[in-house]
């Protein structure tokens, strides 16, 4: 099975990145992470990349102050490296329409809720879990989806529910959802790398 080239965009702690690294190392995912791009130069995700001899690059307001410049640099790198799949794993930047068009159905994102609930602008990190608890939700979960021009609006690839307990806090709920993310994202990357994902309009068929 040919190995797909993966580019990961991560601006945080990088636990999802770490799961991809581990699942590639175990041979479960026939791919290679060619580059990690972060919008946060202090992101632990960059340290994880370095530890595993993966090139990590900071592209942020500090070195590319203009958003268009940042996106042009990201696009240039993804094309230059012949990346087959772009994974957003806690990436806080905004990818412009050019990149999304050039990599149509080749960019996936992991979101910590069951889209279309508790997603879209402003719904990221612990804010998502706080919104679920404030609303009194009984079920939440994680979603892996293709990235389109909207925010968290692309075709859904995989989802898995997480039960909300009466005594859950933002922290306990975030942990339960993150544990599910750590299973779901590698599974989606594996399916993509094996050519088992087919997009039919809004529907994603797993072959
Ligand atoms: C995850 O909760 C993911 O759902 C969201 O950003 C977070 C990234 O966490 N998009 P980590 O950096 O992978 O630990």
Report on this structure.
Helix content is 35%, strand content 25%. With 207 residues, the chain is α/β, with parallel strands linked by helices. Strand 8 and strand 9 (203-206) form a beta hairpin. Helix 1 runs parallel beside helix 6 (170-193) and helix 5 (126-135) crosses helix 6. The relative contact order is 0.15. The model has no long low-confidence stretch (mean pLDDT 97). The structure holds 5-O-phosphono-beta-D-ribofuranosylamine. 5-O-phosphono-beta-D-ribofuranosylamine binds at residues 10, 12-17, 45, 89-90, 110-112, 178, 181.
How many beta strands in the DSSP annotation? 9
Order of helices and strands: EHEHEHEHEHEEHEE
Helical proportion, percent range: 25-40%
Strand content: 15-25%
Q: Mind describing the biggest β-sheet?
A: 7 strands, mixed
């Amino acid at each position: 099975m040919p190995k797909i080239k993966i580019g990961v965009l991560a601006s945080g702690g990088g636990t999802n990145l770490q799961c991809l690294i581990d699942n590639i190392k175990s041979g479960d995912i026939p791919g290679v992470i060619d580059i990690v791009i972060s919008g946060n130069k202090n992101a632990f995700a960059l340290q994880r990349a370095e530890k595993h001899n993966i090139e990590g690059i900071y592209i942020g307001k500090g070195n590319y102050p203009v958003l268009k410049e940042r996106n042009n640099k990201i696009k240039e790198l993804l094309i230059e490296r012949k990346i087959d799949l772009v994974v957003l794993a806690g990436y806080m930047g905004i990818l412009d329409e050019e990149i999304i068009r050039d990599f149509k159905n080749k960019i996936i994102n992991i979101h910590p809720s069951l889209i279309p609930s508790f997603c879209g602008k402003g719904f990221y990190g612990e804010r998502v879990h706080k919104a679920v608890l404030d609303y009194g939700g009984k079920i939440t979960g994680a979603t892996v989806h293709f990235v389109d021009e909207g925010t968290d609006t692309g075709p859904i690839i995989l989802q898995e529910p997480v039960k909300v307990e009466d005594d859950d806090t933002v922290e306990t709920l975030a942990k339960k959802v993150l544990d599910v993310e750590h299973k779901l994202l590698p599974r989606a990357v594996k399916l993509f790398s094996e050519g088992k994902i087919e997009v039919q309009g809004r529907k994603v068929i797993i072959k």
